[in-house]
Design a protein that fits this description.
alpha/beta, about 20% strand, Rossmann fold, helicase activity, 6 domains, about 35% helix, helicase
């Protein structure tokens, strides 16, 4: 988070590539739209009206609305959509769904969806001149959350877009005349409103305000507020559209007469035209959300009282039950089991508590009745989804204890980093927290008593805990059910999350998000009942404890959503996002086993149309495409090729229903996927994708975590101090760009681009459309004119200067040398976009070739900072740890590596560990970064090697899978070239290491 706002203390990173990809996916849909389309449309409509001898005054002219005008035809937008979809690895649409300009953007919870659509507003304004935007949300809770986000991001967007001033308001209906200012303003206008503000609603509390928008209003010259909004043809942005899918809601959206509609959600119920997808697997793989860790609380020793939940009955042969099963270690955990009629449950579970229990009868769902079973010995009847028995008070108390322990451990670990730790408890009913009390001060429910008791016990076990947190647990816990009053009290009722009282509570939470993140605010433990509402989360929730049965079809997914966002640390600059995976972990303390939780979570996502934990048809879409010589290109394989690979794997028997079969044995000698010749170069990448598709990558048991032991003696040794002093020398760089070389390279790139299609304008009574492809024949009731020669050309030099920072002379030389300026006259927008793309690409390459480094005083990363970081406790996962056999040679007993067990980093660590001439080696920490023209670079390894005649040789190495530069990304090569220049300047041997050529 880079751009700092003094007013809020929050910082927002404007360079997150996945967010830029989501923004560009929308912006590029309208490629070719002139920025001054509004003036163009008005002029041409006026021309048509004058020629036809009539004055066509619509509502827009009557109210003086400054609106959005989209002048691209449907065919151009469809072609743009197909380009965007192919680029993003999505299935390419053959046509616009229902012929409408409705576009879906799918982004996992916690990845900055609100930031993305707000920034998209400014990009659309900057590039195309769209100025009127309505953000439509399903509830007051989300409306207030969006309003808070705009307030927090206001200064950030002002710094990014100084030429795009904006106003943002919330429509509540009590001041409907404000729509006049919205309609007539010339700058960017953002209006946030609930769907109930425009659709008819039976809710008595909303009825009056909901009708105002449809009624003539004296202060609006007898027009309806809706007329003013409709007259602007706004861009409608729908946040959580799956909650606005009713026919009434869809009709209400249509009342705005939007120029187009953008729909943002993690889980779309109905799909329209999908332009971007960042699903849970993508978000996890990119490190954009916390890693989910499940801590199951099982009762040891005494046998658990019988618990039975009926999951499903497919036929009369068996029922699928969830039962309390005894594990090999003697503990009890819940597992799903198929049970036949009259089969002893004690035999199925290994749990003597079920002695005498069996299914006496079962029935499938029929004639409107749900499936059911009858149990003996008590004759209990269970319908599908129902349960009996369940978690005892002892288990719930132990779950609270596990949560408090984990919280205190994290508090001690993260407090020095400026990270406040929060924990959430979701309770079965409000009374479990409040008891006989009426507010936070006098709450005395069963869970509250257990929490207070457990907290005091666990806090007393460490001096560190006692210094960090006060003795009174009442200062640290708060409950949010409805608005809690400190005086006077109120009556609380159990809530499903849909009452006005819940809205009040969520409003309070969202408005106080910054206060909750402040370490000086004592509240760290939050109790709630309603976990099923979108609209609230907090980045510093590290523990979630569910003190109730996980019942609803979406409860696990919604519960996780409250804490998936990456944490933030308070620094001198403000709040900054923490991407360190040893920190960014969300622990779920569940009253079900890890296996059951993972299975049920997977099922919830599947029901929502999101596949996790399995191989998907689009699994290979984003693999980098190679040309016929095997050289990596800038393109991806795309959905069509990925789908073909998926079908091949199915037909060959390697996968079935998205799961690998017994035939998939990648470690077996001579194993092959038997891919067609053109796909064989991708075999290792495809195998890697398949191995990474398991549910255990997305959600892990707490037992998968491990800690590393720090070798303090190594950092204090003279050898290490000399190594660190040598490799951490600071440099500065300057870039020498050879003007003739740059101009020549840009001209060559521009000449190689396909011909730009000229534009034509179709003028009809319905409006104005701009099309690619030149003049076509006249249509009835319409006329077609060439754009060439009748259009005010934009300042191409100024536009290109703004994007590239090159001098006017350099740009003029490039444009004249390209010999293609006639195409600029015929289609200025497309031509400028093409030239800018070519110039930026060549500029990056030339800059890297001309970089020169110079030593300056200071260190990249001070040794004392490195030592402090080594002492800090961190959590890692065993699958990414190599156990060192010669721990005296490195700084930890485990080396952290990226990738799987066959990754180059894992192999290199083992190689260095066993080489006798390697005196010392270490994986360089993420904070060890070198500045380069293409961004910061973190090299992989530091090494001391002994050779005859030389006591020590200092080396820095970068591990890659190939030495072939053409098979690596351009950005990788650019950073390596810069690193070579940096380390050459400070006298350190630097090279790339690959499995076939370690270069040691």
């Amino acid at each position: 988070m880079n751009s700092h706002s003094q007013n809020t203390g929050f910082q927002f990173d404007s360079h997150q590539q996945y967010q830029l990809d989501a923004i560009n996916a929308v912006v590029d849909l309208f490629d070719g739209q002139p920025k001054d389309a509004d003036k163009l449309a008005i002029a041409l409509r006026g021309s048509v009206a004058r020629r036809e001898g009539e004055l066509d005054l619509g509502i827009e002219q009557e109210i003086g609305a400054i609106g959005n005008n989209l002048v691209l035809d449907e065919g151009t937008i469809l072609a743009n959509l197909q380009t965007v979809q192919d680029r993003n690895g999505l299935e390419v649409s053959e046509k616009l769904v229902d012929g409408k300009l409705d576009f879906d953007i799918e982004m996992e919870t916690g990845t900055g969806k609100t930031y993305v659509y707000l920034r998209t507003v400014f990009e659309l304004a900057k590039k195309y001149g769209f100025t009127k935007f309505i953000i439509l949300v399903p509830s007051v809770a989300i409306r207030e959350g969006v309003n808070t986000s705009i307030r927090l991001m206001r200064e950030h967007f002002r710094s990014l877009y100084p030429a795009e001033p904006f106003d943002a308001n919330v429509y509540r209906g009590d001041k409907a005349e404000e729509v006049q200012a919205f309609a007539t303003a010339t700058n960017v206008q953002i209006l946030v409103m609930t769907i109930d503000a425009i659709r008819s609603d039976k809710n008595k509390n909303e009825k009056k305000n909901a009708r105002i928008i449809h009624k003539p209003y004296d202060k609006l010259n007898g027009l309806r507020p809706l007329d003013y909004l409709k007259g602007t043809h706004p861009v409608v942005i729908m946040d959580e559209p799956q909650n606005m899918e009713s026919l009434l809601s869809q009709s209400a959206v249509g009342d705005f007469d939007p120029v187009f509609t953008l729909r943002y959600s993690a889980t779309h119920k109905q799909r329209r035209n999908l332009v971007y997808r960042l699903d849970p697997v993508d978000a996890h793989d990119l490190g954009l959300v916390k890693q989910i860790v499940v801590a199951e609380v099982a009762q040891h020793g005494a046998d658990v009282a019988p618990y039975v939940k009926l999951l499903e009955v497919k036929d009369t042969k068996a029922a699928k039950l969830e039962l309390a099963c005894r594990k090999a270690d003697g503990s009890i955990a819940r597992r799903s089991k198929k049970v036949k009629p009259h089969q002893e449950l004690s035999d199925v579970t290994g749990n003597p508590a079920y002695a005498g229990w069996r299914i006496n009868a079962l029935s499938i769902a029929a004639f409107g009745e749900p499936a059911s079973i009858e149990l003996t010995p008590n004759g209990n009847l269970l319908h599908e989804g129902e349960s009996l028995g369940g978690a005892t008070g002892a288990i719930y108390k132990e779950m609270i204890r596990e949560t408090v322990r984990e919280h205190l451990r994290k508090e001690a670990m993260l407090h020095p980093k400026g990270i406040k730790v929060l924990s959430l408890f979701f309770v079965d009913k409000v009374a479990s927290f409040l008891g006989d009390g009426v507010n936070n001060e006098d709450a005395n429910g069963e869970f509250t008593k257990w929490f207070d008791e457990v907290f005091r016990e666990e806090r007393s076990k460490s001096d560190v805990y006692q210094k960090l947190l006060p003795q009174d647990p009442g200062e640290l816990r708060r409950a949010y059910f409805s608005q809690l009053k400190m005086r006077g009290g109120t009556t609380f009722v159990d809530s499903s999350g849909t009452t006005v009282k819940d809205d009040d509570a969520y409003k309070l939470i969202m408005q106080d998000k910054q206060r909750l993140l402040d370490g000086d605010e004592p509240v760290r433990f939050i109790f709630s009942h309603s976990a099923l509402r979108e609209g609230w989360d907090n980045p510093n929730v590290f523990q979630i404890c569910t003190l109730r049965e996980m019942g609803a079809d979406t409860e696990r997914r919604q519960t996780l959503g409250r804490g998936l966002r990456l944490p933030v640390a308070k620094t001198v600059k403000g709040y900054e996002r923490v991407t360190d995976r040893s920190v960014a972990q969300l622990t779920v303390v569940a009253n079900e086993s890890y296996a059951t939780f993972a299975e049920n979570l997977q099922a919830e996502y599947k029901d929502a149309g999101v596949a996790i934990g399995q191989v998907r048809p689009n699994e290979f879409s984003r693999l980098t495409k190679r040309d016929i010589h095997g050289v990596m290109t800038d393109d991806m394989l795309g959905f069509k090729v990925s789908s073909a690979i998926f079908k091949h794997l199915e037909n060959a028997g390697f996968i079935k229903d998205g799961k690998t079969t017994s035939m998939f044995l990648p470690d077996a000698e001579g194993f092959s996927l038997h891919l067609p010749d053109d796909l064989r170069p991708y075999e290792s990448d495809i195998i890697r994708c398949i191995l990474n598709a398991g549910i255990e990558k997305y959600v892990k048991p707490v037992s998968a975590r491990a800690k590393r032991k720090f070798n303090k003696e190594l950092y204090a040794s003279p050898d290490f101090e000399k190594l660190w002093s040598a490799i951490s020398q600071k440099t500065t760089y300057r870039v020498t760009v050879k003007h003739p070389m740059l101009v020549e390279a840009c001209i060559k790139a521009i000449k190689a681009e396909p011909k730009i299609q000229p534009l034509r304008i179709d003028v009809t009574r319905a409006g104005v459309r701009v099309l690619r492809g030149g003049t076509q024949g006249l249509e009835l009731g319409a006329r077609t004119v060439d754009l060439k020669g009748s259009y005010d050309l934009p300042d191409i030099i100024g536009e290109l200067q703004q994007g590239t920072s090159l001098t006017r002379k350099t740009l003029v030389d490039i444009l004249i040398g390209s010999g293609r300026l006639d195409e600029f006259i015929a289609n200025p927008n497309d031509f400028m976009a093409m030239v800018r793309r070519c110039v930026e690409g060549e500029l990056q390459r030339v800059i890297v070739e001309g970089v020169q480094y110079e030593k300056i005083g200071g260190s990249i990363y001070e040794l004392r900072e490195l030592q402090a970081d080594g002492l800090a406790e961190k959590d890692f996962f065993k699958e990414h740890l190599y156990r060192v056999e010669h721990p005296e040679k490195t700084d930890f007993d485990y080396v952290v590596f990226d990738g799987g067990p066959d990754s180059p980093e894992r192999k290199f660590a083992e190689f260095l560990d066993h080489r006798e001439d390697i005196r010392l080696f270490m994986k360089l920490p993420p904070r060890f970064q070198i500045d380069t023209p293409v961004g910061p670079y973190n090299p992989d390894w530091a090494i001391i090697k002994s050779e005859e005649g030389e006591d020590r040789i200092y080396m820095v190495r970068e591990t890659k899978s190939t030495m072939d530069e053409q098979k690596r990304r351009p950005s990788e090569n650019a950073k390596i070239k810069s690193a070579e220049a940096h380390f050459r300047e400070i006298g350190i041997e630097y090279a790339v290491s690959v499995p076939e050529q370690w270069n040691i």
